[in-house]
Amino acid sequence: MNDMQFLTWVRGTGLDIAVSIFVLGVLWRLFEIYSLGRKPDLAAPRSTPGASGWNTVFRRSVPPPGMMKRSPVSYIGGYIFHIGLAIVVFLFAPHILLVENLTGLSWPGLPSQFVDLAAVVTMAAMVVVLFDRINKPVKRYLSTFGDWFTWTLTFLPVLTGWMAVQHLVLPYTTMLALHILTVELLLIFLPFTKLFHAFTVFGSRWYIGKINGHKGVVV
Amino acid sequence: MSASLEKGIRVLKEVIDAPMASYFSSCVHCGLCAEACLFYTETGDPKYTPIHKLEPLRRLYEQEYTLLGRLGKLVGLSKPVTDDELEEWKELVYNSCTLCGRCSAVCPVGNDIVYMVRKFREGMSASGHAPEGIIGAVNRTVTIGSPMGVKLPAVKAQMKHVEEDYGLPIPLDAEGAEYMVMLSSMEIINFPEYLAAIAKIMHQAGKTWTLCSTAFEATNAGMQIGNSDLAKLLVMRIVDGAEKLKVKTVISPECGHAYSALRWEGANLIGRPFTFKVQHIIEVLGEFQEKGLLKTEGFETDKLTFHDPCQLARRGGVINQQRNLMNMIAKDFVEMPDAGYMNWCCGGGGGASAIEEGEELRMEAFKKKKSQLDAVKPDRLVTACANCRIVLEEGLEHYQMDIPVLGLTELIAEHIPDQTSTKGA
Q1: HEC profile of B216-276
Q2: pTM, to two decimals
Q3: How do strand B405-407 and strand B380-383 relate by DSSP bridges?
Q4: At what angle do helices B193-205 and B152-166 cross, to 10 degrees?
């Protein structure tokens, strides 16, 4: 298989397989989680402004008082790489073009130099949080194979995408094919690893907000 | 698999619900919950990371309720939950967790960790892995009626004392009273001032109230150990008493978990809404204050601070009332760092104070409270939970800190003009 055939495969069959597993996986996981349901709360509710599921979905994006100081790397590193990933994935013109070709939807992108910078900053932040995971006793203690694996799964698409754009190490075609392949791996594993928090984070925040909101507690 | 383990696993499978599945699926192992837990911050031992305290439950969830987990179990790839493991987890689920809920307050993905620990205890207790200290309290509650072995005659004796000392009647089983007042064993034995305070406050407010001979104990060891059947039985005693006496409101005493058990878990335990209201005494006082039914005179002039009981503030949403009440009677009321919603636990909530072998760890964790107190250097410490009060006193003694601890209700009552001689003053 030469470079062109490789690229054709990842763009065709490979993408089909990955997207199918991703879509079915996400739907299945959402079903197996949320179909468990929960019992209605029979305690007399107390209402307090701001105490609700939806409020908490947003509020939890902000660190509670005192916490930033206790774990700055988690918060600052976390913000940077999440926002960086969002920029790189959704605001890079070729990515938008791909979505447009697939779905017809389109939106304005950012200049490629800016996205380039965002990719570098994102990778730097990811390396920092990785070191923090190795360095901090609690994070190291909690870490399992899944943590190292998902870090790699997330890092590789950014790295290969950036290298493809920069024409580094490998010919563009090969690097682009590798980039698409790593994205496909990410899609395949996302529903079945901790990366699935990308979906459940909204449900979890809503539940804690709702359950505590019933008590009139703003969480 | 032992019969008790089998039972425990069955119970755990029953308590797993959608919120829990969502929480376990959202955890990214960021470890921020550890930074919120005084058992971690004061010991630096990562095993006290709150989410780690749920590890056996998480695996069970994965093995029973996820496709991949079930496949793993089928081909023998997953590690089953064992008795040895649960025994090892006993320290993490009971001794080093006071159900204070700080972890739940900080989790960035919104995991309600304390919600899960509370449910995990159901399985721990069913599989026979609850600590001796709490089992003892449970047994006394079942056989005698209260965790500290207090019976009705002890209550009656105290009623008599208060009536003699203050000249105020203490009604018992008065049908149709507006309020039914509950007590905690701790108050009956250690803090009799509480009952006197209630009598003075109710008298001034002109409210009818009563104690109930079949339901005076508000604490709920069933909730602490994680046995919903028992917790239900204890709540039912109160419900029966309140419905028999046709009261409008049942008042939870200065006891954090009693309030949670009755106010938030109660109706869910018995499977139907209550026909009466439940309020913590601090909520009642706050209401009286707002309506002008609570009139005090004079001020404390020394420096006072307030320790928020977790179940009242963070878990119960009562945060402003105690501050308004403190300001009503104190000239120099200062707040500790993190006071209010994010206050640090005394270290003995959720049944932990009943666990003898957990004492050393509790004292270690108390360093957090010590640092909060050191920051403001109060002359006296006020709280609104008899259990916090005992634990605080133990901790203060251990660290040789000379700070008296008192209950807010009795402090308020001290500022109510003597009504027997100066009625209407």
Answers
A1: CECCCHHHHHCCHHHHHHHHHHHHHHHHHCCCCEEEECCCHHHHHHHHHHHHHHHCCCCCC
A2: 0.95
A3: parallel
A4: 60
- The continuous run of DSSP H or E covering B361 comes out as helix B359-365
Considering only CB atoms, which chain B residues are within 8 Å of A66? 338, 342
Sheet with B209-210, strands from edge to edge, namely B209-210, B179-181, B249-252, B277-280
Tokens at B40, concatenated: 């971690």
Chain A partners within 8 Å of B40 (Cβ)? 138
Q: Which DSSP string do the residues of A8-32 spell out, in sequence order? A: HHIIIIIHHHHHHHHHHHHHHHHHH
β-strand pairing of B330-334 with B277-280: unpaired
CATH code 1.10.1060 for B3-130: yes
**How far is residue B99's CA from residue B53's CA, in Å, rounded to a whole number?**
12
CB proximity B320 to A under 8 Å: no
Span B394-407, pLDDT tens digits = 999 999 999 999 99
* Nearest CB neighbour to B16, from listed A35, A36, A61: A36
Is A4 exposed, middle or buried (CB count within 10 Å of its CB: 0-12, 13-18, 19+)? exposed
Residues A139-163, mean pLDDT to the nearest whole number: 98
Q: Which residues, including other chains, have CB under 8 Å from residue A113's CB and lie 6 or more apart?
A: none
Three-state DSSP class for residue B302: strand
CB B245 within 8 A of CB B179: no
CA distance B300 to B424: 23
Spell out which residues of chain B touch residue A209, defining contact as CB-CB under 8 Å: 110
Distance from the Cα of residue A119 to its chain's centroid: 14
Tell me if chain A has a CB within 8 Å of the CB of B71.
no
Q: Which residue has the tokens 């793993």?
A: B72
Domains (range + CATH), chain A: 3-31+72-204 (1.20.950.20)
ipTM computed for the complex: 0.96
Q: pLDDT for A22-54, tens place per residue?
A: 999 999 999 999 999 999 999 999 989 999 999
Task: Round to whole Å and give the CA distance between A131 and A153.
Answer: 16
Nearest-CA distance B20 → chain A (Å): 8
- What are the tokens at A14? 């490979």
**Tokens 């079915």 belong to residue:** A24
Would you say domain B290-414 falls under CATH 3.40.50? Answer: yes
